[in-house]
Amino acid sequence: MRLTRSRRARRAALLAVAVAAGATISSTAQAVSGVTPVPSGTYLFTAKIQSDLGACSAALVDPTWVITTAECLTTPGQPVVAGPPTRPTNVTVGRTDLTATDGHVMTVTSLVPHPSRNVVLAQLDRPATGVTPISLGAPATAGEQLMAAGFGRTATEWVPDKLHAGAFAVTGVAGTSVTVDGGDAATSLCKGDAGGPLVRVGAGAPQLVALHDRSWQGGCLAETETRRTATEVRVDDLGSWIAQNTRNSYVALNPGGVLLDTRSGVGGTTGPRTGAVTTDFQALGVGGVPATGVTAVLADITAIRPTTDVYLTVYPQGSPRPATSSLNASTGETISTTQVVKVGPTGKLSVYHQGGSTHVTVDVHGYFTTSGGGGLVAVKHTHMVDTRDGTGTTTGTIPTNGSRTFTLTGGVIPAGATSALVDVVVANAAHGGYLSAYATGGPADPSSMMDYAAGFTSQGLSVKLSAAGQVTFVNRGPAVHLVIRVQGYVAASPTQGADLRVTQPTQVVDTRANGGAPLKAKGELFLNLNTALGIPENAMDGALISVTAVHPTANGFLTVEKDGMFAYTVPGGPVVGNTSVSNFAAGHLARTTMVVTRVGRDTGRIGDGRSGVIRILNASSGTVHVVVTLHGWFNKPAGSTP
Predict the structure, then answer these.
(1) Phi and psi (nearest 5°) for 133?
(2) Closest CA to 413 of 422, 424, 425, 403
(3) For residue 626, which of 579, 593, 577, 578 has the smallest C-alpha distance?
(4) Residues near 198 by Cβ (< 8 Å), separated by ≥ 6?
(5) How far apart are CA 15 and CA 251, in angstroms?
(6) How far apart are the C-alpha atoms of 529 and 535, rounded to whole Å?
(7) What is the predicted pLDDT for the residue at 571?
(8) Is the pLDDT of residue 344 over 90?
(9) Worst-scoring range by mean pLDDT, 398-402, 458-462, 609-613?
(10) End-to-end CA distance of the chain
(11) What is the Cβ-side half-sphere exposure of residue 471, based on CA atoms within 13 angstroms?
């Protein structure tokens, strides 16, 4: 018998608030069909799913994913279709009392059905911060006692507003199922419990073994059946499938594509942007980006010769516009920045323009997906190439329309990496120009990777590597020097490294706020990125941020590094420990660059630093205001390799 609610019960469930459960488990909790709810603060990983089909239960297996039975999310006899749900669906998690306000109520944005089991993964619109996901456990064994949790009907309540849990004895284990019996403990699984977790408790953290599938419902309200046996669908052996489908891995495009160009009309808009105006454009299914399965794109955003100072903000179409800018451009210059942007539910992005008349282009160089790609690894920022002194290359400028090939693997980037995350500095440019880049030996990519201005320009980039670890840069401008500092890389497999949790842009600090003082010469900022999103300690392995240097009073640069042990001079202050990430010139309006950085991890070892903390240092002789925005964070799912 299915555990989803009958039509009458579905209508009643729609009046209830969706809810979820927790991180610790009490093995003395009362039965799912009993009258006593679980103790407060327990079973927080248990979730409630609500749609017009009714209500079911689920389990949080990742900060942004829950797992449940497929029949909870479709009409009887119909398969779950991968992709966005066909009807509005909400998930409540981190709350065992539906009348309370703790935890989260979130929207399901995507579904991933298992190809052969009654199991589906549901992606949430944001991380369930403060709630610890449950890990998979070993297979059930006959005779052991496991705990079942759910928000379904009890022996006395048709639509309870509190989570219940109870003990069941395992009576059999098959290839894809587990049978259980609650007769000894007078426990039952009832309608509304479908998809809830069957959990092993004891010493250490709880472990997920199976999900509630079918039950005789003996002892449930309004049922005459007396049998208390149930069949569970196994998930203990789905670790690889869960990891593969909950990861957000990177796929580089070669060549890149154009999403928007107001000069030519690509993207549907022709003519310069003027004043305060928002332009929408398609991001999925164009420019080499697949039409489905994409969560975010990595794009190069360019402002072309504005008539007055301007700023641009790129964000998912249909979402609130972030308070922070993506790019600032001074009068007459052509300048770009790189940003990872979530794609809106319509498959579109928006760019907001404020300032003088400006042409805008957006080029895409890669995308993030749950299918394929490679995991991300943040490394210590390392100086790899400098054409001024011959580091990693030959000495001398790259001439107009000239190219230079660099090998980036063999040091902090291992052989086999598919892309490099780098900070590129264009030095001594007589006037503006742009760079393109492609994996050496592959097809040339004519799209702009980086637009630079006269003097020095730095920008964070992702460049595709050949099998030999090489990238070729082409210079479309005056003769220039190039400096390349490595910040991370993309591994060959999605099971290697970490996956990126793309977030809405979240401002971490703006030193100008409330009349704040700029960062002084050799001044430091210590920022806790965990706090910005409520991420649990040591869950973050690295972060994707944008750093904007505003109104510097002297030439210089910033450094970004994880918290740890830093050397100091006396009386000179902090020593510069990392390579530059943002080069700036005195008097410039503002310069924004993408930065991939490691973060501190509280391991108990001396020098590892505080969890989620980074240090930013002003390596100039003057002052500079700093704005830091968090765009995403790296998380290593269980079972991934370093």
Answers:
(1) -65, 155
(2) 422
(3) 593
(4) 140, 146, 147, 148, 168, 178, 180, 208, 209, 210, 211, 212, 232
(5) 43
(6) 8
(7) 59
(8) no
(9) 609-613
(10) 44
(11) 29
pLDDT bucket at 17, cuts 50 / 70 / 90: very low
| 391 residue type, one letter | T
Q: pLDDT tens digits, residue range 18-28? A: 223 333 333 33
Report DSSP letters for 492-515, one per residue: SSTTBSBEEEEEEEEEEEETTGGG
What residues contact 78, with CB distance under 8 A and at least 6 apart?
none
The one-character DSSP state at 71 is G
Distance CA 579, CA 457 (A): 15
Q: What was the pLDDT predicted at 388?
A: 97
CA distance 165 to 98: 15
Please spell the DSSP secondary structure of 335-400, one letter per residue.
EEEEEEEEPPTTSEEEEEEEES-BEEEEEEEEEEESSS-B-EEEEEEEEEEETTTTBTS-SSPBPT
Q: How many Cα atoms occupy the beta-carbon half-sphere of 152 within 13 Å?
A: 37
At 531 the three-state DSSP class reads helix
SS3 of 268-283: CCCCCECCCEEEEEEC
Of 11, 36, 15, 6, residue with least CA distance to 192:
6
Per-chain mean pLDDT for the chain: 87
C-alpha dist (Å) from residue 527 to 48, 509, 617, 627, 630? 35, 8, 11, 11, 11
DSSP characters over 546-561: EEEEES-SSSEEEEEE
Report the distance separating Cα 175 and Cα 566, nearest Å: 54
Q: Which two tokens stand for residue 135?
A: 């890990």
The per-residue pLDDT for 32 is 57
- Tokens standing for residue 287: 């420019």
8: left (phi over 0), alpha (psi -120 to 50) or beta: alpha
| Percent of the chain at pLDDT exceeding 70 | 91
Give the bridge partners for 351, in sequence order: 279, 314
CB 363 within 8 A of CB 257: yes
> Coil, helix or strand for 297?
strand
For the chain, counts of helices (H) and of strands (E): 3, 39
Name the token pair of 490. 């993309």
Cis status of the peptide bond prior to 255, with omega within 30 of 0: yes
- Output the pLDDT for position 575: 67
Note the pLDDT tens digit of each residue in 613-641: 999 999 999 999 999 999 988 875 443 43
pTM above 0.85, yes or no: no
At 546, list the tokens.
């944008």
Name 316's bridge partners: 349
CA distances from 437 to 8, 402, 444, 511 (A): 61, 12, 8, 35
Burial track 28-51 (b if 16+ CB lie within 10 A, e otherwise):
ebbbbbbeebbbeebbbbbbbbbb
With a cut of 70, say whether residue 148 has pLDDT above it. yes
**Is the distance from CB of 616 to CB of 559 less than 8 angstroms?**
yes
Cis peptide before 571 (omega within 30 of 0): yes
For the segment 216-229, what is each residue's pLDDT rounded down to a tens digit?
988 888 888 889 99
Residue 55 in contact with residue 18, Cβ under 8 Å? yes
- Residue 141 has phi, psi (to 5 degrees) of -125, 145
